[in-house]
Amino acid sequence: MFESSIEEILKFTRPLHSISRTYGGIVSPGAATLFFVNGKGEAITCKHVAGLVPSANEIEAKFQAFKSERDKIPKSNQYKKHLAILEKKYQYLKETTVQLKNNFVNCVDRFETIECFTHPELDLAIIKFKGFSKILYESNAVFLKDYTGIKQGKYLCRVGFPFPEFNNFRHNAQNDDIEWTNTGIQASPPFPIDGIVTRFLGTIENKIGIELSTPGLKGQSGGPLFDTSGKIYGMQYGTNHLHLGFDIKNREIIDEGKKTKVSNFPFLHVGHCLHVGKIKQFLVQHNIEFTEE
Questions:
Q1: Contact between 52 and 118 (Cβ < 8 Å)
Q2: How far apart are CA 68 and CA 77, in angstroms?
Q3: Quick check: helix, strand or coil at residue 21?
Q4: 90-93: long-range contacts at Cβ-Cβ below 8 A with a sequence spacing of 24 or more?
């Protein structure tokens, strides 16, 4: 059903890989999605995804300041006491993120800066790569021009990069830093998920979003919503959790020959996507070229 459209969509849809390190020393991978709207290195994604770029710089600056003060603590029997005071000053707990690094995979050959425009209300952002000499994506998004075909029951698909499998990173103990490497798995497979339109977000006169019968997965934020022809209907940004009311409390069942009591509180997880009309309005506002059919 969506075989050919997914192939086309993946020509301009790209992952953002992230690695984060906690103060306790755990290094974890994460992923998000963006897609390009023209051949000028201009893409859209979620505002909460675009926020990873300045956040990485702020987190790193704070960590470097912490390390600078930490290295000045005299190595004496009072070291742990003074370190604890410093940790309290910087509000560092074991689970606190102290480093965050991002890698825009197969977007452009190189870039000097990234310019971001974020929507004041919606979870939407424009990313502009600056200082590149070659784009690494093959085509660009084609947005739906006529919205009248978006009705309840419309069958659509999303694609993005959840379930990060890349492991081309490490903690460099000598430099006390996390870094990307040229070894290991450098990619994570794209993951599509289909669904039907269930409801619209906003009002009849001002539709800001489209609800899908299936969840948007973590890592798919910023990924396109499209039909079987590859036309863009919106962008995945979140998932809502609807309590079904079919609760089970302390029900006795037999499991592997033994009686046991179980409880279950089921929810329906539905995906929320920004409406294509709102995306195009934002692109026009910032003079970003795009294609529609």
A1: no
A2: 20
A3: strand
A4: 90/62, 90/65, 90/66, 92/23, 92/66, 93/23
Nearest Cα to Cα of residue 18 among 174, 221, 159, 175: 221
CA distance 40 to 289: 9
Beta-bridged to residue 128, according to DSSP, are 42, 115
DSSP single-letter state for residue 39: S
Contact by Cβ (8 Å): 170, 177: no
- The architecture in CATH of the region 3-292 reads Beta Barrel (2.40)
Question: Cα separation of 60 and 97, whole Å?
Answer: 10
For the stretch 171-223, pLDDT in tens is 998 989 999 999 999 988 999 999 999 999 998 888 999 999 999 999 999 99
Give the position of tokens 């659509």.
156
Token output for 100: 């965050």
Rounded (5°) CA angle 140-146-149: 110
